[in-house]
């Protein structure tokens, strides 16, 4: 476990797990959304591919994402381990909801200084709606990738319950 991707749907706890594993293994942790969104108005990083290529050329790292389309294959090609948080909607939707309420109420600054807003809850791209609508799609994408012969050498640990993930983390 030197180059790790933590994958799953929105609200699964990818960032939390990646941060914890990174600390325990003393490896650099990169939050994909922070790399992707670089400024106000949810501005997108024009140099994302180059930046991710540079970060993942290092011998050790952990990233909390299946990857945005422009860097997805790059991440999967360079990873050696996949930690898959394969939780059902009854786990991820309440998590995404609580996180978004907290961020909206506290006006927490996230990703390039952006903030979640009450008006944003009406968007189909809001994290809660995204977690709901993309749950099956994201799960299928990860399933397809873990079965893809290109990625067969990856050590894939698939967790279907948070308590299994927590038990594994204590062993790291």
Automatic annotation (TrEMBL):
Protein name: Adenylate kinase
Keywords: Kinase, Transferase
A Pfam match: AAA
Residues of the ATPase AAA-type core domain: 4-52
PANTHER family with a match to the protein in the record: TOXIN, YALI0E33011P
Highest taxon above the source species: Bacteria
GO MF, one annotated term: kinase activity
Organism: Streptomyces tauricus
